[in-house]
Amino acid sequence: MWVQVEVFMQTLVAGILLGGLYALIGIGMTLILGVMKIINLTHGQLMMVAMYIAFWMFELFHIDPYLSLFIAPPLLFALGVGLQKYLINPVLKVESILPHNQVILTVGIGLVLQNLATIFFTSDYRSTPVDYASSAWYLSDLWAGTPVEISLSLPWTVSFCLSVAITLLLWFFLAKTDTGKSIRATAQDKDAAMLMGVNVSRMQVITFGLGAALVACAGCLFLPIYYLFPALGSQFTLIAFVITILGGLGSTIGAILGGLILGVFESMTATYVGMGWAPVGRFAIFVAALVFLPGGVASLLKSKKLTK
């Protein structure tokens, strides 16, 4: 009995830790979608670039991947601003037969970044052999006498806590600063924001850079616990897209909940069905969300508010 409970709780905790990192990835894509109304399909490739930056910082200068949070995100913010200002903005202004040509552009940018990484760094798998990679701690260390022994990986726990801290900083930025309020206004109603004096074009540029910086943070947090290779970006672009749909298009709170739901669902699938079935579970919940909850988790939150 206790063994089954222990396995379930261990799986649940692992899913929550994974979901916290997934949420950080999803928030970046959701933020860009909310302001610019496009799906950024180069999201995962930007994360891959940040991971390579953190990797080489570790390899050349022995800088811990977590300390690269002060290096990679600012660089990716600058890269995101450049991509938005000089590539995406000009395409947004051009009328085309294809209504979503800017989305196709992001796919092309992602392919370019992935192939450049393959050319410069080869397709070899890389990792950062940090000293604490295999370290763990137990919940029983905090609550003596508990009948359930749950182990927590130290790097997973640290990455989750830093992810929560970054999310709280983002909330403070969006809720308390003038730039953050302008971004929220642009996301809610672009025309009304322009009438109120908001520089919408500038907010779009900043938002794309902010989304790139957020996914760069996720890359730095994943690096101590994940292998790095050029095609990694495609996988995480799909994960971010699933989270965006699951949480609700443009909803930051929905992205957080969507990330947690996806993380727990993947963890449960890997434990009770099989490791190879985790990606299948990811797309199963994606299809289920499209069929049964097309508005995502955000639609449920809105409906509860309306019924009160």
Automatic annotation (TrEMBL):
GO terms for biological process: amino acid transport. It is a multi-pass membrane protein. CDD domains: TM_PBP1_LivH_like. The chain crosses the membrane at residues 12-34, 69-88, 100-121, 154-174, 205-229, 235-262, 283-301. InterPro entries: ABC_transp_permease, BCAA_transport_permease. Belongs to the binding-protein-dependent transport system permease family. LivHM subfamily. Keywords: Amino-acid transport, Cell membrane, Membrane, Transmembrane, Transmembrane helix, Transport. GO terms for cellular component: plasma membrane. This is Branched-chain amino acid ABC transporter permease.
